[in-house]
Amino acid sequence: xxTFRFQxxxxxANRKPVAVEKLEKKSKIFGSNVFNDKAMRQFLTPEAYKAxxxxxxxxxxxxxxxxxxxAMGMKEWALSKDVTHYTHWFxxxxxxxxxxxxAFFETSFDGSDPVEKFGGSQLVQQEPDASSFPxxxxxxxxxxxxxxxxxxTSPAFIYGTTLCIPTIFVSYTGEALDNKxxxxxxLQAIDSAATDVAKYFDKNVRKVTPTLGWEQEYFLIDRSLAxxxxxxxxxxxxxxxxxxxxGQQLDDHYFGSIPSRVLNYxxxxxxxxxxxxxxxxxxxxxxxxxQFELAPIFEEINLAVDHxxxxxxxMQKVAERHDYKVLFxxxxxxxxxxxxxxxxWSLATDTGINLLSPGKTxxxxxxxxxxxxxxxxxxxDYEELLRAAIASASNDHRLGANEAPPAIISVFxxxxxxxxxxxxxxxxxxxxxxxxxxxxxxxxxGKIPDVLLDNTDR
Length: 458
Known about the structure:
Helix content is 38%, strand content 16%. By secondary structure, it is α+β, with helices and mostly antiparallel strands.
């Protein structure tokens, strides 16, 4: 064993947990660095506040005059927190986020009249060079113009001393060059189609929103040990080596007692997340040695995706403070579990109904069945798109032993719902008589229990 590795092992063995600052109650600090509803009410004019709310809730466009007012309020809020720069924060097709920082500071040509300035034009649109970002082969290399445009449905936030403004990223001709643009288009399509269906059951429904609760699995490796592995530093995974003498054979790491050094890392990370409005809730040991997981409370899907993208960057920065290297690769080590990012999603109406949860009455259960059956059909009809959405060189490493996902996509609904669908299929085909409609509602739809959480395996 090399002297370099012996030294790394010695440093690792002598590490002590890094002290973590104790902050106020989480409910008090949550979202302190987010330009949320509370901050907008304080720093925006009533007219500007109303315009933002209309854009978030109804998809209305914000005109340039109002944008100037919003930018002014956003700047004053940021300056009150000692922020010096702003950036359009976007998600190109690299698997990470991108940002270019510009200072609020401006001065005249002769250097006089220094001032902090931020207007609606800087808020609404910027022009980063798009030639060096991946585009899937849809553009020539000399076509460099790209635009970032403000997404008002995801609130701006302060990261360090920079005001980050979530944006989409598109080409000069309108093609999506990021992950957010297709998502927003999909959300618009789902809202339009699902709202029309939901109105059959409740005429007061005006909007249907997908919700998401992601799970972030990761490995924590001491920085000294990680630095002895060039393959780990360059690719995020090991390319050679011997299997560990003790892996996950005893299943004793999963949900085990969290090591004190790791726990301090988690506490520090949670503090950062609270300030940024990321509602992390769960933390625990995962299956593989040195593997862990955190999970948040469900959120509107666009915001949830932004929060997960931001979280991974925060995790890396916090890991540096604790002398860790955090690994997000789907399969960093052969022979033990890799890391997944499970997605738990649903559809919710603006009236507060979860459309993929059974109700308490036959009519609400019929609504559940309508969306449930159409979800199954969508998986059947568009399985190519689903597989393409998750197909990557790194994720392919998980399609084997020591992993949760199988090599196929299936919809597992459990015995109870399978029985309900079988009974529903057995109802007389064609036009139903009033008696058959009643029979359908009471004998089939009415049999779905209110809570199905423990009625099926997963």
